[in-house]
Amino acid sequence: MKNILKQIPYLLFFLILGTYIGIQLNRHFSFSGNKKQIDKFSEILSYTEDYYVDTVNSNRLVEDAIKGMFSELDPHTVYIDKEEQSAEEETFRGNFDGIGIEFQIVNDTITVVSPITGGPSESVGIISGDRIVKIDGHSSIGWKNQDVIKKLRGEKGTAVELTIFRPSSKITTNYNVVRDKINLYSVDASLMVDDETGYVNLTRFSETTTDEMQNALQDLSAKGMKRLILDLRNNPGGYEFQASNVADLFIDGDKMIVYNKSRVKKFNEEFHAEKSYPYEKIPLILLVNRGSASASEIVSGAIQDWDRGLIVGETTFGKGLVQKPILLSDGSAVRITIAKYYTPSGRQIQRDYKDKQKYYQDVMARQESDGENIDHKTEKDSAKPKFKTKNGRTVYGGGGITPDYIVEAGTISNYSVELRKNNIYYQFVRNYLDKNGKLIREKFKNNLKQFVDEFQFSEEQMQSFIKFTESLKVKYDAKGYSTDKEMIRAWLRAYVARDLFKNNGWYSTLLQSDRQFKKAITLFGEAEKLEGRSK
User: What domains can be seen in the chain, in order of their start residue?
Assistant: First the structure.
């Protein structure tokens, strides 16, 4: 026994030594190729730091090298620096710590566009149109956006003093605002457009999206919703599991919603409908456009493949790749494509991306003709692979989700482009409300429907708008103005509505002249027929 005890230290030593040698040999044979390349990069970086004619920023060189490496892969495998990553986390998490305002800098002055509902700024009485002239006693005139964000955001529970000038009363007042958790909502608007039609605008798929959608649908149901338009236009996507959960709200049983295929088996996944909801049989229409991507296309693809509702608008972006975010030690991150996703019928949504410049240009240059496309005959000559929906309709893979009814958004003149690019609408309306806001609020109070039905800009006011645009160096274009006049009037009304009623006011006003929405609301009969055929 004593001899055995004496040998134990030697046995442990050789066991540890053998394990170490095994690890090193494994590293050598598994990663020797990669190590050579890493050593090569380090050697070149060292020579550059030592010998280059000017001082070099090594961090920037490494970041550029990573971006160069990723440029050989797909367009969605990307490097994100520390600052960008922080903003990305807020977007996907759905909240940040701050004072809760939306702002613009107009004429070098921080202007409150809107206090966020339920946020600390709203609770102390800050309103739309207030000008922040000092922050913690220091003038904030001439600040840039990043300066404002840096000063106003901060740890929950900390305070900041704002000196605010209110044009309507000509009074300057100090407000002590205690920072709190501010929610970034996925549901931008939720409203009834008539006695039985609900409308929800969904802008992203973050951690809180499904909860927000459920709350919105419950609220609309309580108001009498019997059918729904879900607006996914310009929704760039987000979390895949959130897209599956949103689709599950409308798809019954345990039907497939989306599945992933990867070179690495552990990333192969399937997402199915799991829970029962009261919205699985209501007539449903989804609005999409060329800015609807990724998670938006998961929801649209599942709804279309199961013939659960109609897709209306423009062909979607065509992003069918799944990224894994990986946080790096310095706070930066990479998002690496790990899989491709497929709709229930087997469609891959991802477009060809060999030419990356063309990949983005093609989306903007794409032209489609308005028309019924239930059987997708507009794509009948396509070389893309064919698939079948539940009802046997032919749909195509490899190029986004093509709508069942194609409706182009419409074009606007260069004059209108300049008006929006130079923020003319908001500046004009801000001046208008500084003078007339109190009277307008007293007239319409909390009655959005009355505002939508009655409020209008007169011809005299439209002429004032033209003069205002010229004062800001936007050249008047009579033809462009004539062509877009009613659209311009609608945008002006929408900015006023947003000031009075926030996002619901904005959308309630703009939807009246939205050709894609106006077409969609006439198609519920077709949506019910499609749903009826699938029972």
Answer: 95-183 (2.30.42.10), 187-409 (3.90.226.10), 414-518 (no CATH)
